[in-house]
Specification:
0% helix, single chain, globular
């Protein structure tokens, strides 16, 4: 089931200087640590002067849509899904 959420989360991010890529490695939400197993889409958008990075990632059991506000450097969990139909 897909659930819209707007919750702050902690994200572990790896920057590969050779590939010039940032890769989320884990998400900590509600006291639980989820290792990122798969990275889907990454895109950016701007709202006024604020630039956002959006990552669609999956752990072993859940899908996360993570958004990084580059002005505040705060990560938010925007969507969560367990892959089951609604």
């Amino acid at each position: 089931m897909l659930e819209k959420i707007s919750a702050p989360v902690s994200v572990g991010l790896l920057f590969d200087h050779k590939m010039r890529k940032c890769v989320p490695k884990w998400v900590k939400w509600e006291g639980k640590l989820y290792k990122i197993e798969k990275i889907g889409f990454h895109h950016t958008y701007r709202e006024g002067r604020v630039f956002y990075h959006v990552f669609s990632v999956a752990s072993e059991t859940l899908f996360f849509r993570l958004v990084l506000n580059t002005e505040t450097l705060i990560w938010r969990l925007e969507e969560l899904s367990d892959g089951l139909p609604d």
